[in-house]
Amino acid sequence: MRKNRIAWRGPLGKGAILCGAIFLFLGLWNSAAWPQAAPQDPAIERGHKQFQQSCGFCHGPDATGARGPDLVRSPLVAHDVKGDKIGEVIRLGRPDKGMPPMPLTDPQVLDIAAYLHARADEALRSARVPSEYPVEKLLTGDPEAGKTYFNGTGGCKSCHSPTGDLAAIAAKYSPIDLEARMLYPRGKRTIAIVTLPSGEQIKGPMVHADDFVIALRDDSGWYRSFSRDRVKVELQDPLAAHRELLDKLTQADVHNVFAYLESLK
Ligand code: HEC
Ligand code: HEC
User: Fold this and answer.
1) How far apart are CA 246 and CA 241, in angstroms?
2) Which segments in the chain show pLDDT lower than 50?
3) 142 Cα: distance to centroid of ligand 2 (angstroms)
4) Whose CA is nearest to atom 6 of ligand 1?
5) What's the gap in Å between 65 CA and the centre of ligand 2?
6) What is the CA radius of gyration of the chain?
7) Which pLDDT value is given to residue 191?
8) pLDDT of residue 144
9) Residue nearest to atom 21 of ligand 2 (CA)
10) Are 157 and 203 in contact (CB under 8 A)?
11) Rounded CA gap, 214 and 204, in Å?
12) Closest to 221 (Cα-Cα) out of 205, 201, 237
């Protein structure tokens, strides 16, 4: 198995060139043609899906790079064996460089590695290697649409405010860092749901809690505090909600919201 892979990657021998020609003919490079390709390892299929979901936004849906580097021609990927190097990058991330650590399982890492190796092999055999990253394409979200989304269907407003916690956020972080933080937030501000004796509920990020007082920031950004003995308090894991929400975003939503956040300077 391993020998095989090394043979594939060796200097472009006759076999590789022939294969290149055949694959080129099949138009395999074109991802639209992917489903018609010869039956492939189901791990590659699974890895492809997982990749698009967890990594595509930064590395491009086909791994040729966007804000994150091209992984198809990455030396690290080329030297990886069954996820040993890729897995390490996924789990530890490179937080200072815009790559967040991600808690994927071993099988998920194996699938992603299988997918990336398949892409790398494919690229090696193909002459039509894209020469540019689609950065431009990814940076053209619509900030107005993002704002509408943020305040409306996106539901971001229930936890964030452009004049509160996210004020001038784009000035605070580099674009890559901001994106990583949006997709994989690091803070752990708990959400408090306070039920008043009247039955009215107030919900928002918890700002303070001790045995006597619970304080939160409400929808309109006001700081509100309550005596614990007069209200009922429920606390929620905020990052779970944030993650769930981001799962529902389409790529277009992500780009628009990101463009909007980038306008908060
Ligand atoms: C929020 C953006 C982001 C996400 C999401 C992300 N990455 Fe990255 N990744 C980056 C950036 C930026 C770098 C470059 C870091 C550096 O300069 O060392 C990187 C680097 C890498 C590298 C090292 C490449 C090399 O040649 O050194 C690998 C491998 C990698 N990412 C794999 C993945 C995988 C697999 C996923 C999904 C499970 C993923 N990344 C998700 C931004 C991201
Ligand atoms: C249920 C609450 C909740 C919702 C809804 C939510 N987030 Fe978050 N978000 C958080 C929490 C908690 C953090 C972690 C940082 C913190 O504690 O303030 C966070 C972090 C972030 C960050 C990074 C801030 C920083 O300073 O690091 C960005 C950007 C962000 N969210 C954007 C969004 C966008 C855009 C939406 C809507 C699509 C959204 N969030 C919806 C709870 C939420």
Assistant:
1) 9
2) 1-38, 127-138
3) 19
4) 55
5) 25
6) 23
7) 84
8) 92
9) 182
10) no
11) 11
12) 205
